[in-house]
Each structure stands twice: as C-alpha cells, then as structure tokens.
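[recover] target loaded
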C-alpha cells in the first residue's frame, strides 16, 4: 500500500466514519418534534427510546438512519480498498482488512461516543448492524444469521435489550460457523475479522450492562411498555 493509500485508509476514511457515525439522528428527530429524547424514557438517543416517546414510525426512521450511518462509510471504504489494491474478487490483504475494520470501529464508536454530544451517545446496535452489512460478504451473511436470532428472541420475550445482547453474543459464533461451512473462507486469512467480531460483541454487551442488571432483577422493560429514565 502506497503512502497516499495508507493516509486515506488509516486516517481520512476512519475520521470520516467517526464523524458520520457521530450524527445523533435520534436527538435530531426528537428536537424536530419539540422533544429532547435524552430527558424522557430511558434517556437514550437510539431508535427504541425514540419510538417509545414519539411513536413507532419515528423510531423506525431513527433505526434506518442509524443503520445507514454505519453502512455507507464502511461500504464505501470496502469498495475503495478493493479498487485500490485491485483485489475486489478475493480476500483483502491484512493491511486492507485492518483499514476496513478501523473505519467500521470508528462508525460504531462515533455513535457511542459522539463528538457532537460531548462524547456521549447510544448503545450502537443499529449502527453496528449497518457496519456489519457494509462488510460484504463476510459480516453481511453473518449479520443475517444474528438478525434472525434477534427476531426470534424478540418475538418470544418482547424485550429489545435481551434480543440485542443475544444477537451480539451469537455473532462471533455465527461467523465461525460460516468460516467452517463456506469453502472459500479461511480462518487463517480472516482472523482479524473474527477478533473484531468478538470485540464488537463485547462492546455492545458492555453498553447494555444496566439492561443486564434489570434483566436479572426481572424489571427490564418490554416493547410497548413505558419506563422512567434509568
């Protein structure tokens, strides 16, 4: 990788990913409706709290926007790197994978620790989903498996946090399963992606630590039920 490519891959694109990931769409939607979502419900800027306060259509809009701000920078970075190294039809070299993952991590960290909100933010589930969909095909296929698990858990218990935690934990395991089942995938060449999947799952679980306490206490909120700010 040439010096200019290194500069773009390891500095410019991750910085742009962080700035885009930092956009607090939940807060923007709330303020446009005359409500600061940080002062109501759970106090979170994510789609679940937005939907609880403003109604589900606004929650869905927030979810789509939060997914998009994770997907678009990562998708663009992947295409840029593939074109730059003339390697679009095979696994990116190690440096390319690391640059791709750095951009992905920047988007997620931007949502969780937004520069526009004095380094506060949301829990990163929707933005993480967008990031995963952008890392085609490795995390896109894996995300489909985890999304299926999310829908199943939510359908059984109607608890968003439980579904999110379960899906996050399942993600690295699903990625390993796909590596084992897809002949062209090799752990030796994709281990940086696996390590990233573990770190991302751990970060999502960590951001849900208050929810885990409420789940263990049996007081966690179910979909459609009001809850005071935690």
């Amino acid at each position: 990788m040439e010096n200019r490519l290194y500069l773009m891959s390891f500095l410019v694109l991750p910085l742009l990913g962080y700035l885009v990931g930092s956009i607090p769409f939940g807060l923007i939607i709330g303020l446009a409706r005359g409500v600061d979502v940080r002062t109501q419900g759970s106090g979170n800027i994510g789609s679940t709290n937005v939907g609880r306060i403003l109604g589900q259509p606004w929650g869905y809009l927030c979810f789509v926007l939060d997914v998009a701000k994770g997907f678009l920078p990562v998708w663009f970075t992947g295409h840029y790197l593939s074109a730059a190294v003339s390697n679009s039809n095979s696994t990116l070299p190690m440096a390319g994978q690391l640059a791709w993952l750095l951009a992905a991590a920047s988007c997620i960290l931007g949502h969780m620790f937004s520069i526009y909100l004095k380094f506060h933010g949301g829990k990163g589930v929707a933005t993480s989903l967008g990031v995963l969909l952008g890392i085609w095909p490795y995390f896109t296929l894996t995300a489909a498996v985890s999304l299926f698990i999310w829908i199943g858990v939510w359908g059984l218990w109607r608890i968003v946090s439980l579904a999110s935690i379960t899906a996050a934990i399942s993600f690295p395991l699903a990625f390993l399963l796909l590596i084992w089942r897809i002949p062209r995938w090799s752990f030796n060449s994709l281990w940086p992606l696996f390590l990233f999947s573990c770190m991302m799952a751990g970060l999502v679980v960590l951001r849900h630590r208050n929810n885990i306490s409420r789940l263990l206490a049996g007081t966690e909120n179910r979909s459609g039920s009001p809850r005071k700010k935690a």
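[recover] notes: The radius of gyration is 18 Å.
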